[in-house]
Amino acid sequence: MKDFDIFVIPFNVGLYFILIYCVVRFIVWFRQLSRADKLRLQRGFFGRAFGQSLKEIFLESLLHRKIMKSKPVLGYMHMSLAFGWFLLILFGTIEADIFSEKHLNPPYKAIFFKFFNPSHGESGFAQFWYFLMDLILAFILSGLLLAIIKRFIPSVVGMKKTTKHRLIDRIALTALWLIFPSRLIAESLTCGAGGLGGFLTGTAGSFLASFMPVENLAYPFWWLYSLSLGVFFVLLPITRYMHIPTELFLIFMRNSGITTGDKAGTFSEVEIHSCSSCGICIDACQMNFVTGIRNIQPVYLNRALRRDENVTEIAENCLMCGRCEQVCPVGIETTAIRMIQRRNISGEPLIKNKWFGYLRYRSIQPRDKDNYEPSYALEMKEDFKRANVIYFAGCMTHLTPAIKEAMKKIFNIAGDKIWFMDEEGGACCGRPLMLEGRDREARELINYNSELIRKSGAKTLVTSCPICYNVFRESYYIDAEILHHTEYIKRLIDDRSIRLNFSDKKVVYHDPCELGRVGKIYDEPRDILTWVAELIEPIERKEKALCCGGSLANIKLDPKKKSAIAFDTIKRLSSVNPDYIVTSCPLCKKTFAQVSDIKVVDIAEIVAEEIAGLQRRKPSTVSLNLKEMVRQLLD
Amino acid sequence: MGRFGYTLSKPRVIDYDANNRCIAEFIAAHEPTFNLCIECGGCAATCTAGNFTSFSLREMNILLKRGENSAPHEKIRRCMMCGKCILVCPRGVNTRNVIALAREAFMKFDRNERL
């Protein structure tokens, strides 16, 4: 029996290269972490996060549970390649350990075991190992077959569109695809020569041996097997396959509590390298399936970032609805990565490639967008009022006055002392500027509004616009509790400050992106609606809800395409034949109203319409609202 | 001069030969809906920033198209990007992109870059 053959050299070179490369890369990444994140990672490594991460690595990186749940065939394809390869290496190593004469073999002995040791013997135990290794190989090959079919007919695995790859990725893909068939053929030929092997290699081997000189042909295929492994390993760092080692690091970092943040750094780097370009985000994107724009999805953004390309156009042309983030099997924070790029006006890559992409280094952090100060001429008004509750309608609500009026009515009946902060038109909340990456200008508006809120002494701020709601919660430093009007109405119902009639109307609820996926408010509006009407759920709901298309986050999209998205969403919502389409965002309402045949209303309007008289008013507030009460009774 | 009771007002001629329309051309090239504007002023009427300042998108569009760039250059910083103007525009002008492109154009213009 031989111990070494020259054909293992490509494999060995590739393997040791990639091992050393990954160690160096991880050390570089770790060193670039901020001090706080380093501590988090260290604490996570020696704490509970370690166990969680191992579990997640097994379930997600190997078994691909998330994909399995949504698309079983696609999940099986990914699982067979990842988990199957893992099993092949694991059991190959055990096999080599059992059947070769010494323990602790070099890795190539396990990978090319049949070459060095074609015969295990005739015992039942040896036969079992033949069977086991053949079974694992068959498992991988079945996934590989699916992968090849998927390239040409994505619908087989449940996908509508699959990623368009570049040349270097295609070369690595070919190398990966060659690995397993060449192993099958090499093993079959070697086994066929000796009349050995399991159900797969043995059968194929004896069949091939019946008409060709298998002894001479086996050797070139062992070379091919070793070469394809070597090529794959060497190309791995500059192709999408870098996700294989990087995803493990990402899972450890995420479980340790590190997040993307708002600057390009190690975590965003690890995230973009963890993107496997699987293309699941493409199918989720409305820009793809309604308007046919297929170059801006996170898979292409991440790839362009890895390749040092100018991503300004990709970063700007996005609704930021967050549907892609919900379906990403790796859990990459796609919107946060896009926001980092939006803040970077110059379009220069924040981290640059060297040596064909094998080395990446951080370039200088660029300036803020535009080099000048904003000049909003915001002068502090003297007429601010003291109040317990502030109502901030938001710019968009001023264009949908029905919501404003409904909220006024609800406030009146609830009897809270409110101050309508932007009744005469206030400053913008700042989020539209932030979504465009102009944080510094937004800060000026935030400071102005914060000052007004602080001076009023309010404990609660109610807003009708989910866009404002998110910026108030995330970027304002104020003491007041921030409520969206759905939360506020829900509270009024719960403490019986308002009482509602049940109408027989059938309503369908549309989750606005900003309120649902960003603000995580799904249940309050549904609770309210069950009080006033018969609620029907559309197919795309909660985390999977569609965007109305009017998103302020996309300034580049043609208005016609925006209406096309609105029309498509309305079509899907109307399919359940509701009387009303209910939403809780003035922008969604405005966008839908232009294309919808069915009446679109805000949740506040439907509540205001169904308020049952003025029962159970808080006693202290009756006198304050007496005038209003009389007016309403007269009405 | 003041005491005399007469002043010399500046000529109000729009001199297309002297004016530089590069900013408007840059915007129109990247956002074709810019040309759809009929200067109705709906955007300026609803403008959040216009409530605080004298910012007016209508005025800006007119001046940029004439090539009188100095006033828009100063005033463009006042836009809050709130997006109300898009919703009221009867012609479907992508106003926020017009503003974004104008800012980009002015930035490049200041740096003497090619537009």
Characterize the structure shown:
The complex is a heterodimer of chains A (635) and B (115). Chain A has 32 helices and ten strands. Chain A has four domains: 6-239, no CATH class; 259-356, Alpha-helical ferredoxin (Fumarate Reductase Iron-sulfur Protein, Chain B, domain 2, Orthogonal Bundle), CATH 1.10.1060.10; 389-493, Rossmann fold (3-Layer(aba) Sandwich); 506-609, 3-Layer(aba) Sandwich (Rossmann fold). Chain A is mainly α and 635 residues long. Chain B has a single domain (18-110), classed as Alpha-helical ferredoxin (Fumarate Reductase Iron-sulfur Protein, Chain B, domain 2, Orthogonal Bundle), CATH 1.10.1060. Helix content of chain B is 44%, strand content 0%. Chain B has helices at 22-30, 42-46, 57-66, 70-75, 84-88, 95-110. The relative contact order of chain B is 0.20. The A-B interface holds A 345, 370-379, 395-396, 398-399, 424-428, 430, 432-433, 436, 438, 441, 445, 550, 552, 555-560, 587, 590 and B 33, 46, 48-49, 51-53, 77-78, 80-84, 86-88, 92-94, 96-97, 100, 103-104, 107.
- How many DSSP helices of chain A? 32
Distance between the termini of chain A: 101 Å
The radius of gyration of chain B is 16 Å
Overall pLDDT score of chain A:
87
Ends of chain B: how far apart? Answer: 44 Å
Count of extended strands of chain A:
10
Proportion of residues in extended strands of chain A: 5-15%
Low-confidence stretches of chain A: 615-624
Structural class of chain A: mainly alpha
CATH class group of chain B: Mainly Alpha
Mean of the pLDDT scores of chain B? 88
Oligomeric state = heterodimer
For the report, how would you describe the main beta sheet of chain B? none
- Tally of structural domains of chain A: 4
CATH topology of chain B: Fumarate Reductase Iron-sulfur Protein, Chain B, domain 2
Fraction of residues in H or I helices of chain A: 55-70%
